[in-house]
Amino acid sequence: MGEFRMPSLGADMEAGTLVEWLKAPGDAVARGDIVAVVETQKGAIEIEAFEDGTLERTLVEIGTKVPVGTPLAVIRAKSEATAPAEAAKEERKPAPKPTPPVPKAAPRPTSAAPARPAGDRLRITPAARRLADEKGFDAARLRGIQGTGPDGAITLSDLEEPAEAPSAAPAPMSDMRAAIAAAMARSKREIPHYYLAQTVDLSRVSGFLARANADRAPEDRLLIGALFLHAVILAAKKYPEFNGHFIDGAFRHSAQIHAAMAVALRGGGLVAPAILDAGECDLDTLMAGMRDTLGRVRAGRFRARELSDATITVTSLGERGVDTLYGVIQPPQVAIVGFGSPAERPVARDGKLAVALTTTVTLSADHRVSDGHRGALFLRAIDRHLQEVTGQ
Amino acid sequence: MTKDEIETLVRTELGRIAPDIDPDEIDPDGDLRDECDIDSLDFLNLVTALGKALSMPMPEADYPQMRSLDGLLAYLARGTAA
Fold it and tell me: Which chain A residues have a beta carbon less than 8 Å from that of B13?
């Protein structure tokens, strides 16, 4: 008998609000099935089953905020016989009536928040929509509420907490900002970062991309970001001390590579969901994975494992960002690789000055796990894989 | 497809990708990706959607012609006029 728990969703999230059951008691569940949806500071997150079985009963009511680790439901594994008599008896007892969540205070829309234009689609999470319906909020009232979710979406907490009266005091941190602050403060407090940088010539990469994309329909085209990610994954296979988690004073290397991409959200904040098993992906599969993941990030909905299981992160400020950026490691990971914007820059080649497309690749890594010497080898391996891209 | 229909299509697709941007506030000669704060994947999604809707291949080599909103509209008008 397995308990289906509120998973850890990364270093920065301690609780989530159950907003939806996608399976009912008695339903068969297969490993990987999405069983429930929780709302967090970073948006709606789908939680998957970890084993095959049957959903025996649910333990948490919709709308309840529960800490990480709380059992949400009981799943009977396939291998287990039907529930023993005792359990069956227990099941017949009426379930304790869960206390419905009580809002902290009566919601009160603020007149200070800028109202959305009437034609603009209202952004609201499913759970908040349900609560709003229960409370009989009309559309005009909802439009007066400034959402704090992704893309300014209205979340449960926006309906539960009274809006601040207009004042000169600085605005309180949004949930998203608070989550980032908590994770990054922990990172800088606990992880002794060291930083390395390497200039990489992208002439071959851009030539490869132009040739590869020339005959492709837009939906099959590759972006340079997919090549960057692929090079990092190949390098991480050779240098395992950059791929894994540092937990309870020890580094645990991960045999799988779940490569996360830091993604800026419109309206502020960022998330870094992973492409799961990215180590098994070829370039096209990786590109498809990026499109799929980023599409769901934009929609404000992703899977729990994509946040909790990431083993290494890649960050860039896009093709029009800055020359160099040094990432902050996401605990419990131990490395983050940054790519500066590709641009034409002067380079020395065969004793002459030439102009070539280049980028600066950086590594921020955990000194408890690795040293600069290995970090340099890791960065050079990324460079080498980008030079060998034509061979793929 | 008329010029107006193309413009409506482009505005609709831009609205899908950058819902927080008011199309009326975009500088039509400015860099579209900067004006709408969209990244390379957003731009690829825009090209994919427009290419499908207008049955145009929209090759990468033509991207410079799609730099601004006006440039993109003119490019699409040329491609559909043939």
Answer: none
Report the relative pairing of strands A335-339 and A352-366 from DSSP bridges.
Answer: antiparallel
Determine contact: B34 vs chain A, CB below 8 A: yes
pTM of this structure: 0.74
Tokens of A225: 């970001």
SS3 letters for A221-277?
A: CCCHHHHHHHHHHHHHHHCHHHCEEEECCEEEECCCCCEEECEECCCCCEECCEECC
Contact B20 A266 (CB under 8 A): yes
Give the Cβ contact number of residue A166 at 10 Å: 10
The one-digit pLDDT tens for each residue of chain A (392 residues) are: 688 888 877 666 778 888 888 888 999 998 888 888 888 877 788 888 888 889 988 888 888 888 888 888 988 887 665 544 444 444 444 444 444 444 444 444 444 444 444 445 677 777 777 777 777 777 667 777 777 776 677 777 777 654 444 445 566 677 888 888 889 999 999 999 999 999 999 999 999 999 999 999 999 999 999 999 999 999 999 999 999 999 999 999 999 999 999 988 887 888 899 999 999 999 999 999 999 998 888 888 888 889 889 999 999 987 777 999 999 999 999 999 999 999 999 999 999 999 999 999 999 999 999 999 999 999 999 999 999 986 44
Taking an 8 Å cut-off on Cβ atoms, the answer to whether A214 and B58 are in contact is: no
Q: Which residues of B touch A152 (CB under 8 A)?
A: 20
- Cβ-contact A308, A254 below 8 angstroms: no
CB-CB under 8 Å, A291 with B61 = no
Collapse the DSSP code of A351 into the 3-class scheme (helix H, G, I; strand E, B; otherwise coil) and give the result. coil
**Which residues does chain A have within 8 Å of residue B60's beta carbon, measured at their own beta carbons?**
210, 213-214, 221
Taking an 8 Å cut-off on Cβ atoms, the answer to whether B48 and A223 are in contact is no
Q: Cβ of B41 and A121 within 8 Å?
A: no
